[in-house]
Specification:
The chain is globular, with a radius of gyration of 21 Å. Helix 4 packs across helix 5, helix 12 packs antiparallel against helix 13 and helix 12 packs parallel to helix 15. Helix content is 59%, strand content 0%. The chain has 353 residues and is an all-alpha fold. It contains 17 helices and no strands.
Length: 353
């Protein structure tokens, strides 16, 4: 049976990867995902097709800025860290489903199986972050946002279907895993900034989302005014006033206002700021929010509906196509009628009557 590296070489005759050319010294005790996984998965012809599509198409659709990194830099890293390779194949299979829904039966099972394997390896790697695997962990964590929002678009919703019809918006169950990128950045900042993915971290657009708002253009002022209204949910005299739950919402709202203010700023690279604002919100908010969301707390759902307005601004990317309208509509269906007025603005922004 061909090894993982031999099979991936066969995938792309026009691009020969450089195996073993790591930017850092390998960990002397390789993790499970970088040893056993590479010899236990039997890649198929469909997998070869999926990888070809990633190199030629999907790699340029994952977000604004630095498409060459997704196409040229990340694949060699993935060859040394199979969980990243499986993640690449999973997101590309979903892209193919989006482009060719009539071929769902060919690509949905690969999308599910590759992401399952990828997540197993990702969790193992997160438990032992090192200079050897930090680049792969960071790259995979950036794919999670696209996978989280594209997978619900797959016909049949097999990846995310829960046991209850009114289960919390399914894609959000994946987003706590994005905290992996926060942890790897915190403990491996210098390694990442000197490594192959440095452009993702060195740009000023990342730093901006950790700075206070100093200026708002007229459009952003109106958006910030709408967001600020949410604080009325926990003002004095309300059941949430003074509660730990309200404290979580305060932090989430503060970070959401930063995402809107900096993510929708005017300028030639607005799309890049918007993408960072959208994806980094999930990293910057407290873990307790996801617990409240899982409990279907009304305040958490209201904030989520406003967050999805950012997703609607990312029109043009297949993995969010129509997602905001669908998910805000689902949140509306989950809320009791007395809460509907809190999401009037998000519904208006995505044109839900």
């Amino acid at each position: 049976m061909l090894t993982l590296q031999a099979k991936v070489i066969a995938l792309s005759p026009t691009q020969t990867p450089v195996f073993g050319n790591k930017s850092t010294t390998p960990d002397p005790t390789p993790s499970l995902c970088s040893s056993q996984a590479s010899s236990s998965y039997n890649f198929t012809a469909i997998d070869f097709e999926i990888y070809h599509h990633y190199i030629g198409h999907t790699s340029s659709t994952l977000g604004p800025g630095y498409p060459q990194i997704w196409r040229d830099i990340i694949p060699p890293i993935a060859f040394d860290h199979p969980f990243l390779l499986h993640g690449i194949l999973a997101i590309t299979a979903l892209h193919l489903i989006y482009l060719h829904p009539e071929k769902e039966h060919d690509y949905l099972i690969p999308a599910i199986s590759h992401q399952d394997i990828a997540l197993q390896g990702y969790r193992i790697a997160l438990a032992d972050v090192s200079p050897y695997n930090c680049h792969a962990i960071f790259a995979f964590s950036t794919l999670l946002i696209q996978h989280a929002f594209s997978a619900p678009r797959a016909p049949g919703n097999l990846i995310f279907t829960g046991s209850h019809e009114n289960e919390v918006v399914p894609c959000m169950k994946w987003l706590p895993l994005l905290n992996g990128s926060r942890s790897v950045v915190e403990c491996s900042t210098e390694c990442l900034r000197s490594g192959p993915l440095a452009p993702f971290l060195l740009a000023d657009k990342w730093k901006m989302f950790y700075q206070p708002i100093t200026h708002l253009d007229p459009r952003a002022q109106e958006e910030d005014r709408q967001l600020s209204k949410l604080a009325q949910m926990w003002q004095a005299g309300t059941p949430l006033y003074g509660t730990a739950e309200a404290d979580v919402y305060v932090q989430c709202l503060d970070q959401l206002r930063l995402s809107f203010a900096h993510g929708t700023r005017d300028g030639g690279n607005t799309a890049e700021f918007l993408m960072v604002g959208f994806s980094s919100w999930c990293i910057r908010i407290p873990d307790e929010y996801f617990k409240l969301l899982d409990q279907q707390k009304e305040g958490a759902l209201v904030i989520l509906a406003h967050y999805f307005v950012l997703a609607d601004k990312l029109k043009g990317y297949w993995w969010v196509d129509g997602m905001a309208k669908d998910l805000i509509g689902k949140i509306h269906a989950m809320l009791n009628e007395e809460w509907w007025h809190w999401i009037e603005w998000p519904m208006k922004m995505v044109k839900i009557n």
